[in-house]
Fold this sequence. Notes:
This protein is an alpha/beta fold and 618 residues long. It has helices at residues 34-47, 72-86, 129-136, 195-207, 217-231, 286-304, 308-321, 326-338, 342-355, 360-371, 375-388, 393-402, 418-437, 442-454, 458-471, 476-488, 492-505, 510-522, 526-539, 543-556, 562-572, 579-591, 600-605, and strands at residues 2-6, 56-60, 68-69, 96-102, 105-106, 113-114, 127-128, 143-149, 175-179, 185-186, 188-189, 193-194, 214-216, 247-248, 252-253, 257-258, 277-280.
Amino acid sequence: MAVVVxxxxxxxxxxxxxxxSGKSPTYLRDLRFADKDARRFAKTxxxxxxxxxxxxxxxxxxxxxxEQLATxxxxxxxxxxxxxxxxxxxxxxxxxIVFYFSGHGLEPDNGPGLxxxxxxxxxxxxxxxxxxxxxxxxxxxxxxxxxxxxCRTGGLESTEASRKPYLPSTVDRTLAVFFSCxxxxxxxxxxxxxxxTYYLCxxxxxxxxxxxxxxxxxxxxxxVDAQMRRETTPVTAGTSxxxxxxxxxxxxxxxxxxxxxxxxxxxMRYPEAEQVILAKLTPPDPDAYDSWxxxxxxxxxxxDSKDLQxxxxxxxxxxxxxxxxxxxxxxxxxxxxxxxQLAKAEEMYRKAIEVDPTHVPSLASLAYLVGxxxxxxxxxxxxxxxxxxxxxxxxxxxxxxYSTPQNIADLYGKTLSKAEAQGIADAxxxxxxxxxxxxxxxxxxxxxGCIFLIERRFDEAERFxxxxxxxxxxxxxxxxxxxxxxxxxxxxxxxxxxxxxLLEVEPRNALANANxxxxxxxxxxxxxxxxxxxxxxxxxxxxxxxxxxxVRATMALMWNDPxxxxxxxxVLAEIPARRSEAIELAQKxxxxxxxxxxxxxxxxxxxxxxxxxxxxxx
Length: 618
């Protein structure tokens, strides 16, 4: 049986600088991946390790279907009542009991502890690791396996530095403990969730099998260890309170940190348990398997050193050695993709899917590759990937984008077709699901804001745009959409402010300069509007084609006012082919009473007080 626990959302997290007992940081955030990681691990136990589904008990902070709330009271009840009914009473039986936890950890004086959903600061951990191990050792089974994917787990091992034997001193040769990192570290990734759990599951499904196709505790440990060591190059030192402030690609908060620059380690407490069989997969040809191992290892080293041509050569040999492995085909496709060999990449992705129709990386990569030319096929492939991994963020986001026109903001004010309306409704559900896991996903926040803008739900649109701005105050797409939204509501000062913030980041953004000019003209600030229109045309002379109709429509209301006439003249003066038209407009402004000294366009066009003879527009 298995007890699988994931806690992303906590009821009583401490506020910043609030006191906490023990050695943990004073500030903790809700997690984004723990619930998802628990569900992934539970599914792997059922699908790959052949655990009976009814014997896998899942506890999360937001329970779905048959899951329960992740409190110690409910977990303890399951261990006390369900385990004795399921597990054999015979000493040394072949039964297994697995306890998995993903969430926050705490390291008080009595050893590392698990913070469950109802944990409160100042009251210690919900349960300590040592107490949990003691509970597991009560069962007379062939394997007790404790898996902890949380930070601050290093104290599980009694070291000379700590001299605190957190595990029982009596050796239990059927007990194994895997944990994700050493004391004070955490390693998570926005696309894969907890990286340790990601590789734990992938290794159980394929990478961890030995020459006989068998996944043992020892072969699993070796596979996860090798893959994690490739991942965990020490990063810049920091503290947990800094995590939310940093950005990756302007989109995701940094959740990977390493306080002391050490590399993680994942010891099994009692190696005697390493021969326990966890899964039996299709056995490869022994010689082919050995060759694949060598080429796979060399290929990954080449990827690490950024020698993509050599990596491609190695993975092609790995594929030829073990063509039944979808991962090999995927790697060849991925590297061909990176090297812009797109036809080859597509062929390899399709072959990987033939070998394993549920291989999500190949499904998602192929969907992205073919989606630009065949949107319908991209949608089908993304849906297939989500049928396997319903929380895959890349698939959720791209499928949401494919459900709507490429620029959803252009739909504002238009009558939507039935297909467009349904697509937008589908996209909204996908974006909201994505934001439940990744609240700071800027593209999802922006696109969801645009959807509410289309629906003329301005308050909701503003809320999502402002959330995006909080994540990255310099995101030009968010600032531009805020400016456009405020302009549609005739909130001129707010619109002007948003566009000016954008132009502080990108001064030569032609579209933003032209939009700001239009907003200023709507507010009858013609002189300043002219300055921004001139900047727009200087950055992109073609921009005037998009905006001239709107500018002239606005000016028509003030055609007898010389200032807006001179404004348009100054804009057209930047375009050599329209200089004569600019001169006519300047003469019109002069005829309406504007003195050449009152606007720089006259000097630019060489028009002074004495100049005459140019026909004035009427």
